[in-house]
Amino acid sequence: MVGERWSLLVVRELLLTPQRFSELRHALPNVSSNVLADRLRELEQNGVIRRAPAPAAGQQAYELTERGRKLEPILRDLGVWGIDAPQPPEPSALSATSVLIFLQDAARADPTAAPTTCRLELDGRVWTVRFVSGRVQVQPGETATADVSLRVMPQTFSGLLADPATLDAVCAEGEAAIVGDRSAIGRLLYAVADPWPSDELAVR
Length: 204
What we know:
This protein is an alpha+beta fold. Helix content is 39%, strand content 20%.
C-alpha cells in the first residue's frame, strides 16, 4: 500500500495539513506529475488518503484518512532514525512539512518559559508555532497573537536549527526576515540545540 516510490513522502506531506495537487508537486519537485497522480490514486484506493474541499472555491485537496493517520508514528520514527544520515548532494529539496516535523520532534523547549507564539512563513506558506509548557505545537495558517514573525526558506530554516548562531548573518544576507520579538526566534532555534544554552545565548 505504501511501498511504491514517493508514497510515504506524500503521506509525510499530509501529516500537518491537507494539500492540493499543486502544493504536493511543489513540495516534492523531483516527482513527475504523472507519477504523483498515480501515487495519489493508489493511496486513495487503499484508504490511506481521501479528497477534501480546498479553501479556494472549485478546488480540492488531499488529506489523510484515519487509517493513513496511523502511519504518523512510523514516519516520525523513520525521521529520528535518519537524523544522522548524510545530507543529500546539492541540488536537494527540503519541504516546509519536513523541517516542521523535525522541529516538533527535536525541540526541547524550556518548560518554565512563558508561552511563545511564532508566525513562520516557509516557502510562501504561513504556519503558527507555539511553545507551551515545554511542548511545540505546529498549525497551518495565520495567528493574531504572534510574538514574532520569521520569513525564511525551508532549507535556510533547517540550517538555522542546526546552527542558530548564524541567524545574524542569514538576516544580513537577506535570507531571513524577522518582525517582532527577536529573542523569541532565539528560543525557537535554540530549542533544538543540545544542550540548552545559557539565558544570554538563548535570547541573542
